[in-house]
Design brief:
178 residues; alpha+beta; two-stranded parallel sheet; 5 strands
Length: 178
Amino acid sequence: FSAPAALNVLKSLDLDIPFIVVSGTIGEDVAVAMMRDGAHDYILKNQLARLGPAILRELREAEIRRARQRSESEVHLLLQIAQSASISDDSDYVLQEALRAMSIELNWDYGESWVPDPSTNTLRCAPIWWGDRQRFKEFRQQGENMVLQHGEDLVGWSWASGKTRYVKDLQNVESSRF
């Protein structure tokens, strides 16, 4: 398994992980070609003192790239939401488009909206959602029949606290952890 093969695997997985080649056997031409293909640095085995600083530099650079990608993603998302708001006065449409844009941008499989009912001080699942309608049909039907009290369950907790809470798996979350 060679350094070029490892770099190809990393590229095929589309991962932004610093890739530093440490070798004493590959020539300058191969090192230059690997740098062109995405390697971040090349260090000769007889110059290992450069390895620590190179790792720290590349980790900082990777964080800068991730922060830039997050910022670009947020700007793209905000532009999509602003565009939806600019073409319609229908708040349900704007909310649905915002939820759709967020789900796509953040790679969510599913998103739904819960709205307060001021007359009963409860939350009801709104008809605004995003996701594969067949795959989430049963899940969606359960949500449509739910009514949450202020402070009850994850959504009610967010409503009561005014704080956003994300969880990866609702079935494995204890309500006491909210």
